[in-house]
Amino acid sequence: MRFLISLCVSLLLLINGEIINGQTSVAYSNISSDPCYNYESLDRPWRANNESGVHICEERFSWNGWYRLFYYGMNIQMPETCVSSYSCNTHISLWLNGSHPQIEDGVVTREVCGNYYSGGCCNYKTNPIRVKACPGNYYVYELVKPQIGCSGYCTDVSTISQPNSTVSPNIITGASNTSNYDPCNNYNILDNHRRSTLNYWSMYGSANGLDDTRVEWDGWYRLFINGASAQMPESCFYYMSCGGYSALYLGGSHPRLEDGVVTREIYGSRYHQCSYYRSEPIQVKACPGNYYVYKFTRPPLSIPAPVYCAALLTTPSVDPCYNYTSLDEPWRATDHSNILKCDYSVEWNGWYRMFYNGQNTQMTESCVNHGMCGTHYPLSLNGPHPQLEDGVVTRQVCFSVGGCCAYRSHPIRVKACPGNYYVYEFVKPIFCGAYCVEIFYPFGSAAGDTINAAADDGSSSVIQLLSPFLFFGRTHQQIYVNNNGHLTFNQPSSSYVPYSFPARGSQDIIAGLWTNLDNSVRGVVSYHQYTSGNVLTRATRDINTHFPNLTFTASWVFVATWDKVAYFNLTNTETSFQVVLISGGNFSFLLMNYGDIAVTGHPLQAGYDTVNSTHYFVIPESVNGSFISNLRNSSNVNVLGRWVFRVDGEPRNSILNIAFSNISSDPCYNYESLDRPWRANNESGVHICDEGFSWNGWYRLFYYGMNIQMPETCVSSYSCNTHISLWLNGSHPQIEDGVVTREVCGNYYSGGCCNYKTNPIRVKACPGNYYVYELVKPQIGCSGYCTDVSTISRPISTVSPNIITGASNTSNYDPCNNYNILDNYRRSTLNYGYWFGYANGLDDTRVEWDGWYRLFIDGSSAQMPESCFYYMSCGGFSALYLGGSHPRLEDGVVTREIYGSRYHQCSYYRSEPIQVKACPGNYYVYKFTRPTLSIPAPVYCAVLLTTPSVDPCYNYTSLDEPWRATDHSNILKCDYNVEWNGWYRMFYNGQNTQMTESCVNHGMCGTHYPLSLNGPHPQLEDGVVTRQVCFSVGGCCAYRSHPIRVKACPGNYYVYEFVKPMYCGAYCVEIFYPFGSAAGDTINAAVDDGSSSVIQLLSPFLFFGRTYQQIYVNNNGHLTFNQPSSSYVPYSFPARGSQDIIAGLWTNLDNSVRGVVSYHQYTSGNVLTRATRDINTHFPNLTFTASWVFVATWDKVSYFNLTNTETSFQVVLISGGNFSFLLMNYGDIAVTGHPVQAGYDTVNSTHYFVIPESINGSFISNLRNSSNVNVLGRWVFRVDGEPRNSILNNNVIGFRIRLSSFLDLTQNGSTEIVLEQIKQELVKYGLPNNIELKLRKLQKIKP
């Protein structure tokens, strides 16, 4: 057969010989197989290149076949030019790198590019796709799952056109069931577990991929989840729930049986915005048997990937009030800091009742600080608990980030029970959060409280105290609980109008919230005394927490509670608070807890007052009914909603002026110097949180040694190197004012200058024109105390302040024998602020260093690390490490540079150099100095200095977890949840393997952040080495985790001392098939240009029609069947030679200098299992079982005369039944100037393939990042018979090839070169090698 090829070029077209792969025409024998008439319609206007705002990832959808693109019913096509990142409602915006074809071009293959940030228009490339132009002026695309990040196929709004009528395409349809009968008896079943509201993609992996605009709805539907009856939810669900992107829910309650068919609105969520989208209304009907049917319709196209949600429709068979699991976990309290608890790790099942140290409690209904309740994201109930008569109700669950209920988790069901308690049907939350319990002390009938009569303005009877209570010098034996929110000691009070404190009256009074309350209408007032039990235990803990300098044991507690009490004449209001009196020994304390406080116009007062007002306190803003609800978010002890006072004697809480009896007690002369220039209001760029530091006492502020003070005016958010910038809301005092209290405001985003308020602080003006501040831990977000550069002044000499000092040990002797011990576990490199809670808080600029120091971690010898650690490691913000290796004993005292990290930038900061000395006994001493003040919170890091007592090569734990493979998708594995201990050897399905040394795609290795080794594995002679660990986000090694130690072992394997990584990542293993001596390989002789002996195959191998019983593994990177080959210069494919050859990487390799060439055959075991899995994955239309595998590996082999190079690759032959496959794995490939070739060629070149760019030694390293099966570094081919890689068929009638080159076609010889290049491209796609090509030059004439 003669083929006539038409090559359209201008006479002087410049061509570089690069063939645009696969731009070949295909003629279809009938309309049913032509993708122009056999496609799925894809109408997603939110993918247009002028859309942005949400981030939807195509890799979450299932792609299968051909697609025609629409924009609200009109034709649209993919862009052919660069699209900005974050366009098309995704992160990485995908566009076609090449023009669309003409109809005569048939099916062509086009490269797909992605743009992310500013790295260039095509800095990401994903799998190519096939495209076809169709009659009617539209295109169809064979879309595939992208292999990069969160990416999306864009559409170009400039290409919109009205469609012409064509043959109807295939569509996805629901089950058709048209009927005029009752829909309760005639419905379609919709049973898909992915529609479940509990299916959230970020945590559970299996979600996303659904899009109900792609379904042709037909009739009525009944919902099921895995066979269990379900219904649509009636409340909001977080975006990306229910298997799609926009979770659709019912905008109203379900109908009753008697309502018949009703119409309900449908809403969809966008991020945390519940009703952002409004879909088409649907009809709903309640049916006998307690289920519902829905007449679903196609949602609006403008909603991104909308999905009708489903929630299980279950009624408890047993009353959950009497069939629950007790949940008593004190860390759930709203005052408990983050200890990394995550309720999504709990297998919740059924109903739960909450306790706190054995006492009944309930979920909090109010906002909780981020990082409290023992978790990262505290979960609270969005709405009040139900009443008994409400039965089982559903409540939204909020988690605290970016606002009180800005984001929501899955709703839960709640029921009120007799005995004043609640039960909850908990489910896995969306993120790492935990259900919180109230910090109120036990109350109500379940706690045994005595309940006041429900009488307006009433009081309790006189209550005889079980223990005397000392209140500012007066001892009381009795008390009254007054319904209007206050306690009195001598007589009851019916007063509903509070007087102002100080009243200078004749009685002691405690006002929890003294106002006009009315418990006759709503709410309960109750009280209880305790002299033993868990309440005393809790009170002891609370007081010792809030007063850390005391050693206190509670012996008596009195709790008075106002629970959901209404204001007078405001019957729908509810106000809850608690007054707790605590005593023990000579100490007395007053504790006030505030829940939800309704605003009111009634006069009110919160605080305490004494006889003649010798002592009093008014809680800030508690006299303003419009702001009284803020009590829930205020505190003087950094626990929102709690105020605590010591009340036994002298005024411990006074905010009055204080005269100090001597200079040692005056804070003007008893402060800590705080020189943090990075807190100035003109600084930004990093985010350091003052709640991570320990605050204790008074502080004087400096700026590089000069005075500075806090700002008195608004500071922009993200200034002062923090998120929420804190400033003083009020002027600084004068000296004569003494100590004053000032409100502290914070600004975040654009919510106003004082939209956040934290705990007030005390301030004092001092002689010498400076101020001291009693700074406390802020209670909001990530905040920081700012300084104002406009207030800088030179300091005047004053009495020297107290400072934090290291232990002084000055000596002229050898520092190896005279050093200070520095033992602080927080300096450990494993102490990372974000995940482990107890990090941060150190700042080595605040230490007065003196002499030499030896490092320890919890008593174990340690040393400074020699490599970079991530910021916020080591207990501070900027992790300092040694800029060079430690000295040897004979080196004596040496000087080393010190560097500090900023985010992922390792040497961003350079601190002062220090001296270091190696000492006998295998330890080091350091002469630490004060780090540079411009470095934010720098800390000298420490890493354990340990030498294995037993060789870890023979004392390791085997780690065989196949999900760690570089080709395994994310299943939410997290190695920071593993308690690593000692050394580990890695296996893959029983076969020896190793950590990958190369970049791994984000979301692979079974985790979110794959961890790879940054650098080569050691050699045997290296012993134990330390290697950086990279995780893949924003670049191959843009971010790092903690380094690990690695050792090479005899038998060609490695052991690793794994540690908890910083983030949710996992250590990856290579995808190479097992190799080396540990796998039982036969090793080729280390001979340049050598080969193996003849290898008799244990199973015949069929290679394009020829069956082989033997093979040779040649050291120069190729396999031959009939004879060995010493050739180190590859010939070009197609060679039209007399032999079959497989070139993994045929070039001039030299294993006599470096590296190992080895091979192994398998006829049983795990390798066959893996091969079976791989082939069925890469060829999903086959059902294949491997019966034989041959693995040849070139491991770290050098190029000839380039002894420092290392190149690793693998050729795997797989057969089973009548099938044969060739698999090539590529690791790190060094660039080279030697000729190279990768692919295969057959006798007479009837079949051949050249891997793109594999003939260019400068680009050969890209093999590690190339693939034809969407697994980076892997190429797979079916090689048993006819050309299986062809995209052609027997109905080919012609081709049109478009190419570009730098050759001048008018010159002699250039035509032949171009034709040969074209022929190679055509043969690669299945044409016989005996085709004849001719060039016909055409003159293009403009119309």
Automatic annotation (TrEMBL):
GO biological process assignments: cell-matrix adhesion
Record InterPro entries: Alpha-tectorin, D8C_UMOD/GP2/OIT3-like, NIDO_dom
Ranges of residues in domain NIDO: 512-650, 1144-1282
Stretch forming the signal peptide: 1-22
Pfam family, one: NIDO
Keywords: Disulfide bond, Signal
Protein name: NIDO domain-containing protein
Higher taxonomy: Eukaryota, Metazoa, Chordata, Craniata, Vertebrata
